[in-house]
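REQUEST ID: PR-0412
SUBMITTED BY: lab tech R.K.
PRIORITY: routine
TASK: structure prediction, single protein chain
INPUT:
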Amino acid sequence: MGLHSLFYRLVSEFVGKSRAFIKIQEGCDFRCSYCIIPHVRGDARSYDMKLILEQISTLTQNGFGEFILTGTNIGSYGKKDKNTSLAKLLKEIFKLKGVRRVRLGSVEPVQIDDEFKELLSEPQMAKHLHIALQHTSKEMLRIMNRRNKVLDDLELFEYIASKGYAIGTDYIVGHPGESDILWSEAMENLHRFPLTHVHAFTYSKRDGTPSAQMKDIVRGDKAKIRYNELISIIEEKNINFRKNTNEPLSILIEQQKDGFYIGYDQFYNMIEVKSDTDLVGDWVEIKDYEILRGNNVAKF
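STATUS: complete
OUTPUT:
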């Protein structure tokens, strides 16, 4: 099977000849009040494990070493098949020759079970997980019809962080019902979470969703202020995480831009590397680097 045919099956994107995005499922069984996706893409359904493994194996033979598993809700992988799960899929991927690192798209807190936790020490696991909180106010999670609970989330995040992981999340700002009191509570809780990255969004109305019918709308200017507050908190947490990192950075160089070679380390932090050698597509280990506000910088 050639790379061209692979592209039109499960491989949704290539980054050079080093990193590939592998779609493992489609759809979502969650019914969050703000989300239109289940109505558009349907319930969760998984791609066959054999096909996924076959395609990753073909890519490793063509020089790819890092794989990002993607989908609408990848934590639901195998949910309707009692013989498989995301954790079981990962175990099989780790057995494939040439797989150096596996990253995951967004997973839900309630989908991280004991079987998954056992994989956190596997060397091919990227030391970064993206776990969708969406909010850190108990009442806002109820309004959003979310399945996760703040205190359970905090316990989970602290456990994963104790294993040396960076943790990112999705967060919606300005959803209807987000009062000043609830926002204040949410930020107080957020400070307790060991987060390092965030995909933050200001709420956008989607016709046909329960949230679209809700009152107590948050003004756009207020939502923007809250968004900036959230981003500032996570940026500071990210810097502190990088300052406290005590292990060498394992980096896959993806491109050259403005005189630097650019890649991401195992914690999904960007680094700019100055080198006289062409590093694109190479794996490099960096021990000495400078920590800037937005990324790290090094010479190699």
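NOTES: The CA atoms of residues 14 and 20 lie 5 Å apart.
REVIEWED BY: pending
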